[in-house]
Amino acid sequence: MRAIDATRLYFDRAADHMDMSESMRELLLTAKREVSVQIAVELDSGDFATYIGYRVQHDDARGPMKGGLRFHPEVDLGEVRSLAALMTWKTALVDLPFGGAKGGIAIDPSKFSPRELERITRRFIDGIHELIGPDVDIPAPDMGSNSDVMAWIMNQYQKYHGFNPGVVTGKPVELYGIPGREEATGRGVGILAYKMTSRLGRKPQQTRIALQGFGNVGSHAAKFLHESEFKVVAISDVSGGYYRPEGLNIPQALQHAREHKSLKGYKEAERISNEELLELDVELLIPAALGGVITAANAPKVKAPLIIEAANQPVWPDADAVFDERGTIVLPDILANAGGVTVSYFEWVQNRQHYSWGINRVRQELDSVMSTAFERVWSLSQERKVSLRTAAYMLGIGRVSRATVLGGIT
Ligand code: NAD
């Protein structure tokens, strides 16, 4: 199954509960615009290379479209399309005045020098600058891109359209960014882990957690969970897994990852594989790396009774069916990782206001947005006796469909 089919399946499941017509389904699922542009750049060697950059603008019924820019060798139009639709449901679910979009370039950023990456980013913006803008489509970081990339986007856009920092979010704090954006997705995961476990009557100290991925999302989630006294017993990155049943020393692991740019060589834990990490006997599993890591093949071996999808689409629909059957609770990606886009929204508001928010205000408002969305999803799921994923999709899709009708379809 492709990523886009997974998104469609979850959409249809929710739409069935809402008695949505076929014509409305088609309208909501069809992207407003999809572009692919040539990116021809000179490499440091003096040679040149050509890449393809994608931007899918899925829906703008509720506001300017919003979504990250992914630099990863496996990026293709199908994946970007699926992630763009997820952004539409996600922004609607947490009630931000945005639609959904996504972009990507199929490159491995670790294979390029910073100057080459800058040239690639600027050429991409040359190709799409007329299609983005603070009131149209606002890119942000995703896997493989970061605040430096966002600064180049702002600067390149400015060359065509003049000063307008609200064209992109996730910028460096020194360049119109907002404090707390980098930690936002991980912090949001932490806030929800706390809410979800207390709803299930479990204290943080009694909750052992296995966390896959130690990048932006995973490392900040680990920090927040550790500070909230959860017992993080396993972490991992591309170098493999690290397990300590009594609980890991997270500040020490974070320091190791900062110094070595990876967990590789971290000695204070038993080495396990990424596959073994997913199957550990823990109370909470948080996949925070790649999509599609839990499928029907390994789902029966997953022991955690609660999964929080910090990554996008880590649980494949065939695995979701196994969990539904077995009563394993899955907090879905469109809610679980919405902290990032929420603080991106605060950054956009700040840029439009020409006013700076402090970290305390950012954290407080993030907490409020995530908590409100969680309560809505939880009560709808109880009321309609549907999974948290179906409830989250129902809320997101319902808001987009109402805005579409109110705005006038033709
Ligand atoms: P990142 O590039 O900062 O980190 C990715 C992490 O995954 C790294 O630790 C990497 O080593 C690890 N990894 C890569 N391949 C792996 C493998 N095969 N097994 C185990 N670990 C592996 O990316 P990120 O920004 O932390 O994003 C992670 C996920 O969260 C993605 O699915 C992304 O779309 C999603 N997400 C991110 C944000 C955000 O604000 N950064 C927001 C919403 C969703």
Number of domains: 2
Instruction: Work out the helicity level.
Output: 40-55%
Helix segment tally: 14
CATH class category of the largest domain: Alpha Beta
For the largest beta-sheet, the strand count, sense and barrel status come to: 7 strands, mixed
> What's the CATH superfamily of the largest domain, by name?
NAD(P)-binding Rossmann-like Domain
Write structural notes for this entry.
With 410 residues, the chain is of the alpha/beta class. It has helices at 3-17, 22-29, 77-93, 114-128, 147-161, 181-199, 216-227, 250-260, 274-278, 317-326, 333-336, 339-353, 359-384, 388-407, and strands spanning 33-42, 48-59, 65-71, 99-105, 137-141, 208-212, 231-237, 240-243, 270-272, 284-287, 306-308, 329-331. Helices cover 47% and strands 17% of the residues. A seven-stranded mixed β-sheet has the order 9-8-7-6-10-11-12, sandwiched between helices. It has a five-stranded mixed β-sheet with strand order 1-2-4-3-5. A hairpin with a 2-residue loop joins strand 7 (231-237) and strand 8. The longest helix is centred in the last third of the chain and has 26 residues, at 359-384. The chain is globular, with a radius of gyration of 20 Å. The structure holds nicotinamide-adenine-dinucleotide. Residues 141-144, 185, 212-218, 236-238, 274, 288-291, 310-312, 337, 340 line the site of nicotinamide-adenine-dinucleotide (NAD).
Supply database-style keywords.
alpha/beta; binds nicotinamide-adenine-dinucleotide; 14 helices; 2 domains; single chain; seven-stranded mixed β-sheet; Rossmann fold; globular; 410 residues
